[in-house]
Automatic annotation (TrEMBL):
Coiled-coil intervals: none
PANTHER family: L-RHAMNOSE MUTAROTASE
Name by which UniProt lists this protein: L-rhamnose mutarotase
One Pfam family cited in the UniProt record for this chain: rhaM
Annotated source species: Microbacterium pygmaeum
One annotated GO biological process: rhamnose catabolic process
A GO term for molecular function: racemase and epimerase activity, acting on carbohydrates and derivatives
Amino acid sequence: MTSPTQPAPAPSRVCFQLRVKPDLLDEYLRRHSPVWPEMLAEIAAAGRRNYSLFLGEGGQLIGYYETDDDAAARAYLAASPIAARWEAEMSRFFVGLEGRPDQAAAPLTEVFNLHDQLTESTPS
């Protein structure tokens, strides 16, 4: 817990990239409209928020979410039977992916964040 004089730590921003098989794009989109309610609840219970997926040319998929503890969120979902079932169904959609999509997608390195730089450049 933080004291009134200590600000809460900034959430981690996590971005990842996967590639959806072009011949399965339509089905992939149908599966996300909507996502199972119990899977949505597990994502939230894991501590992920502001979670979005963006689809680009050729099946390029970019995911983004924020969390206070990404290792804990990943561990929670890794142990979740609901997430395991969802990911087992979703794994066939991705090119060159071994294992569960949520666990196998490597985070991208953040190189710029407007809010952080504005905050750092503002005198106290």
